[in-house]
Amino acid sequence: MKISFSVLITIIVIAIILGMNSFFTVDETEQVIITQFGKPVGEPITEPGLKFKIPFIQTVNYFPKNLLEWDGDPGQIPTLDKTYIWVDTFARWRIVDPLKFFRTVNNEMGAQRKLDDILDPAVRNFITSYHLIEVVRNSNRPMDTMEVGLEQIGKKAPIAEVKTGREKITRMILAQARPKVEAFGIEIVDIRIKRINYVEEVRKAVYERMIQERKQIAEKFRSEGMGESKKIEGEKEKELKRISSEAYRKAQEIKGKADAEAVRICAEAFSQDPEFYSFVKTLDVYKTTFDENTWLMLSTDSDFFKYLKGYSNVQN
Q1: In the chain, what's the furthest Cα-to-Cα distance?
Q2: By C-alpha distance, which of 47, 59, 125, 56 is closest to 89?
Q3: Hey, is 305 helix, strand or coil?
Q4: Domains delineated in the chain
Q5: How do residues 235-263 score in pLDDT, each as one tens digit?
Q6: How far apart are CA 181 and CA 119, in angstroms?
Q7: Buried b (16+ CB within 10 A) or exposed e, 148-171
Q8: How many CA atoms lie within 13 A of 206 on its CB side?
């Protein structure tokens, strides 16, 4: 029996359609649940490759294997010390049991809603259970020059001691949330606080406090600079006096040595011709003592008059 060409084409087309609806591929980043009339059948397909399903009856549902993002709803949360802050959190999660995931939340949008219901209250509960300093810091190490300066001037910054810290708080949030999402075939890999900020009223007060504290630090540095300046000036004056006294001492030593040398020379000259030395020195005294207006009354036997008297005898 001969088959017409049109029938043959029809059979080929039907075979192609059946083949296209019978085979599907699974990527390395995907996992698959096969459903039949809306209900899952068989085990989840997690290995990549070419797979088979009953055409038109069974449906392929793809779910990602890689990490997915949850972005929390930022909002105002009061800390234990009644300080309102804006907290913005995020988390990374993945589907570890696609069958359970499909039966409970069905898709990623449903999973996001469940994560909102679990993670947002957990974040709020832990933030309200700790002081502000615990939420924003991990240790008591000074974070900026404000705190360092206050410590140096002997004042305590109005900051409580950090006992838990932000890192431990996020780990506790993660530990609390993980068991709750296991029922949905979800694993929360990590949760972090993206951003923390003060509300407007608190921010203004904090800025004013920071300005005042930095003014204190600036004043401390100025006073230290003035003290250092006075210390340098005192050292300079001390050094100048030391140099001056040293120079004066050396000058006096040189002068004393010169005077001693002069005395020695004079003594040598006097010892060679005492009469001539006495005559020269007496003439020097006459020269510096007498002028045209000088009157001098001496006895005839005065030593001061002997050379004048001798001069008179020579003239006679």
Answers
A1: 193
A2: 125
A3: helix
A4: 5-64 (no CATH), 68-198 (3.30.479.30), 274-316 (no CATH)
A5: 999 999 999 999 999 999 899 888 888 88
A6: 10
A7: ebbeeeeeeeeeeebebbbeebbe
A8: 12
Distance CA 210, CA 164 (A): 24
Alpha helices in the chain (DSSP H): 5-22, 98-104, 108-128, 132-136, 145-152, 166-181, 200-272, 274-289, 306-315
Q: Is 88 helix (H, G, I), strand (E, B) or coil?
A: strand
**Those residues with Cβ within 8 angstroms of residue 298's Cβ, 6 or more apart along the chain or in another chain:** 304, 305
| Mean local confidence (pLDDT), 160-176 | 88
Q: Which residues contact 109 (CB under 8 A, 6 or more apart)?
A: none
What's the Rg (C-alpha) of the chain? 54
Closest of 193, 16, 23 to residue 119, by C-alpha: 193
pLDDT at 169 over 60: yes
Distance CA 157, CA 213 (A): 9
Q: Which two tokens stand for residue 315?
A: 């003239």
- The answer to whether the beta carbons of residues 189 and 65 sit under 8 Å apart is no
- Residue 171's nearest CA partner among 148, 141, 157, 191 is 191
* Per-residue pLDDT band at 268 (split at 50, 70, 90): confident
Structure tokens that stand for 44 in this block: 């989840």
Residue 188 has pLDDT above 70, yes or no: yes
**C-alpha atoms less than 13 angstroms from C-alpha of 241 in its C-beta half-sphere:** 6
Q: What are phi and psi of 23, to 5 degrees?
A: -115, 145
Q: What is the pLDDT of residue 308?
A: 62
Structure tokens at 283: 């003439």
Judge contact between 33 and 53, C-beta under 8 A. no
